[in-house]
Task: structure prediction
Amino acid sequence: MKIRLTIGETVLTATLHDNATARDFAALLPLTLTLTDYAATEKISDLPRKLSTKGAPAGSGGKAGAITYYAPWGNLALFHKDFGPASGLITLGMLDGGVEALRKPGPLQVRFERAE
Result:
């Protein structure tokens, strides 16, 4: 499934994986979140509710451009730099390009929508 992320004047697209957690995230769309800096590698935000982790691996790595769900905290994390494996990290999908838009310092308001 394709989604669209709008950050100010910048519009990005991403492709979600076909897994239970990504489908549960897609069910929340459209959604506007304020993403904040975390560990100089990612932008994070709480979600309105926890997502399903049915069938999810125990963890994964965060690659630049990855849209992920960190199950222990119940938050969305978008990586703008590579990060090693983390227990409880589930990859929802990948940006199709434009990861540099996430590297702007400070909070970013992002609108997530299905791109159909």
About this structure: The beta strands are 2-7, 10-16, 31-38, 42-46, 59-62, 66-70, 75-79, 83-87, 89-95, 108-114.
